[in-house]
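Much of what follows relies on a compact textual record of a protein's fold. An example makes this concrete, so a full record is given next.
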Amino acid sequence: MSLEAWLSLIIVGLLFAVLQYRRAPSTDILFIGGLVAVVALGIITPATALAGFANPAVLMIAALFVVAAGLRLTGVLDLIGSRLLGSVQTDSGAIARLSCVVLGLSAFVNNTPVVAMFVPMLVDWCRKRGVSPSRVLIPVSYLAIMGGTCTLIGTSTNIVVNGLLQTEQRVDDSAKLYSEPFREQLGGMSLFEIGQVGLPCAALGSLYLIFFGRRLLPKRRGLIERLDQQRREYLVELLVKSDCRFIGKTVEEADLRQLRGLFLIEIDRGDNVITPVTPSDVIEAGDRLVFTGVVTTIVDLVKIPGLVPAGDVEGAGTVRRRRFRWLFEAVISKSSPLIGMSIREGGFRQRYNAAVVAVHRNGARLPSKVGDIVLEPGDTLLLQTRTGFAQRYRHNPDFYLVAGVDGSQPQENERAWIATVLVVGLILWLALASTIFSCSMAALAIASLAVAGLMVVTRCISVANAREAVDLQVLVTIAAALGLGRALTESGAAQAIASLLVNVVGSAHPYLLLAVLYVLAIVFTELITNVAVAAMLFPLAVAMAEASGLSPRPFVMAIAMAASLSFVTPIGYQTNLMVMGPGGYKPRDYMRVGLPLTVLVSCVALLLIPRIWPFAL
């Protein structure tokens, strides 16, 4: 190998090693550092290094972040999630219900927001059913990962690999490096092409989780007690307006008997007070529903159109006004002028431009009318107001603490159908563009950007939220990894390693070559980010195929599959890290459940890949 090839391998090897340290710099910083190093040493030019930042795959991933956020903010994802579990009582039943929905969603929506949506819902469900979250959260992450392998857009890994295939073919148009049959095998993937392997892997993986994997999951009962201790119960009074979908339904039909962590204690109907509330009581317009329960479920209720805080009828009554209102928690201080006054007398709207949604007081029995509660020092108020409330009153002596409530961002529920139509249209276009019209990756990226832009134009998501939805760390890591992949190719390092593997294994054993490459990708994926592995092993896959006179398609597909299916460590995939804290998991839990799953899906993938994409040119 040349000096440049050795330097490329040393830089990449050091990068992999440093990533294993807990206190290592963030992934994007490390990859940028590696990219700068290969440029500084003259291995690739600055233009080649920066080409990854303009790669259509990177732009498409950025657009899909916005599209997924639009689905979440319009309530589409929440609607699917909230109606999923129903009356399920056991962890096995929950995993079975989740299988189809999570697999289906993550096949077309980035799996990170899918898992982010299900985690809080499942934690609340576990608290209510007395089930440890450690019994269900790892399966959700694994299901989302497997669902991503079913379509081209299911995971960023597939998008990156597809972009690399088209780039390699485009480069060969001018350089003429490969034979015509070899070049034809470098064409872009269709929407469901990789699903020929991904879907069987996902189906068998789901069955494993339902019948065997769940038996290997820990039962950490202490986590349930800890969740109960963290539970902060509020008293909240909500008014049923004339446009509420609950009108004419019984309490049971409106699903108000199965709320997560919330209990309907009273219905105030003029001079008539219904208590205790029975499942057969019918809800009418103008009813005041009095609940007691946790703040997370109160947040969900306040987002329902036509159900508004009783103290904020004027401010929250219209869709336009509700769109700009958020929830904040504020703790009353000893010096507050509100001490000794009822909430009604305090005039919150006039004084703070805020409405009291609910009140929490440790260990005290509060009256059933929020407006009649006389405030005391230490009372925690749940307030509905505009976004700048925390900045204005964080240092105000009237309050000990002011903080926003996670998840209280207003949803554009009335635009849910718009978001759904846009996403369905995008999926149909991607299916047609990648199969019938054979569009380039750039065309697919433009279509994704157009749908993301329409999400903003139709106000399914604001410009500010669209910016926040784009995960720059992920995008920078992918772009830098693409540059490092080019360094391995142009320096000759990838070709040298490929020749070594072909000489050791022998080109007469293509199945063994495929298995070696697949296992290499699996190991690397458990240690570093999956898209980086795909970007840097892609040149090796193409070089191995070219050196052995075989088709590159099965080797590339093996990279795409192996780089996506990360189950053995928490750091191998972002969704695994997301469930680690809420589930109270330890690294050995992932090993115990994920290693058999990895072996299972690897055997299925290695069996199917050569049958679907033959080795012969």
Remarks:
- The first strand starts at residue 233 and ends at 240.
